[in-house]
Write a structure and sequence with these properties.
Distance between the termini: 19 Å
Structural class: alpha/beta
Number of strands: 12
Low-confidence stretches: none
Strand content: 15-25%
Mean pLDDT: 96
Strand order of the largest sheet: 2-1-3-5-6-4
Bound molecules: 2'-monophosphoadenosine-5'-diphosphate
Largest sheet: 6 strands, mixed
Shape: globular
Length: 269
């Protein structure tokens, strides 16, 4: 990688800037394709100042993650349709001084699903109604999935379902809906380290042919996915979503379709 006066800088704004795998993923592809871009961490404490820095330093784009996905919205100049609907931003692009926020989380999730199954016409249960669920819900609906949102707090499920235009219910609906469901996605934090002994789906409810995806990435194999696998279901790990939301961002950063296998290999290292 040769840095020169023309190099476009892509920054990372997020609390996980020290441990993020994104540097390896993007820089490997910039190198491979001979693109004059570099992906670097920024230590951001005050998001307003962080956004001012994008403007004043002419940074080409930034990847955005926790805790700035919502707070960054009011400092940019515009939002694309995905960011607007989801109500969160995971990428900001500097278009000749105009900063536009986007969000690739939902579409990345659907890409991960589509590696294993069609979504169109399939019955999908989405567990959760928080930020992650919001991103996935719109993308699944766009793809033609028959969506039901189930959440511990019924009002939140109802609210999101109203905006998306789908069915909703409480978690107790799981046992009734599971036998006829094709895809189940956990978009809650249940099962995440250190509480790894938890899952929202009882093992007896899984059936062969079901596709089960979890957004929880630590541990990689959550209790939900372990039990689904043992029951003959197809499982999708959270790192596939991470990969695909990154692939979509790459296109936004550079305008170029990245070689997915290079990004995948860099992520695995
Ligand atoms: P994120 O932005 O990561 O989605 P969030 O907005 O805090 O995080 O949402 C967390 C989701 O996990 C919510 O749907 C939450 O359910 P409630 O709306 O009832 O709070 C769900 N969740 C968290 N802990 C849970 C638990 N122990 N059982 C069931 N659902 C849980």
């Amino acid at each position: 990688m040769k840095i020169n006066g023309e190099t476009k800088i892509i920054g990372f704004f997020g609390a996980t800037y020290k441990t993020s795998k994104m540097y390896a993923m993007y820089n490997a592809v910039f190198e491979k394709l001979g693109l004059n871009f570099v992906y670097v961490p920024f230590v951001v404490e005050d998001i307003k100042k962080g956004v001012e820095a994008i403007r004043s330093l002419g940074i080409h784009a930034v990847g955005v993650t926790i805790p700035f996905k919502i707070s960054i919205m009011r400092h940019v100049d515009g939002l694309d349709q995905d960011a607007k609907r989801i109500g969160a931003v995971n990428v900001v692009v500097n278009k000749n001084g105009k900063l536009i926020g986007g969000n690739t989380d939902g579409k990345g999730g659907v890409k991960a699903l589509k590696e294993k199954t069609m979504v169109k016409g399939k019955k999908v249960i989405l567990l959760g109604a928080g930020g992650a669920a919001r991103a996935l819900a719109f993308a699944i609906k766009d793809e033609g999935g028959e969506l039901t949102i189930l959440n511990r707090t019924l009002d939140d499920a109802k609210e999101l379902a109203k905006r998306v235009g789908c069915q909703f219910g409480g978690l107790e609906k799981l046992s009734e809906l599971m036998p006829t469901t094709n895809i189940v996605i956990n978009s809650t934090s249940v099962g995440m380290f250190p509480d790894i002994s938890k899952s929202l789906v009882e093992k007896k409810l899984f059936h062969k042919g079901l596709v089960v995806m979890d957004i929880v990435s630590n541990p990689k194999e959550t209790k939900l996915l372990k039990e689904a696998k043992e029951s003959g279901c197809q499982v999708i790990f959270a790192d596939r979503m991470l990969l695909w939301q990154g692939v979509l961002k790459f296109k936004i950063y550079t305008g170029v379709e990245p070689p997915v296998e290079v990004m995948e290999a860099a992520l695995k290292k």
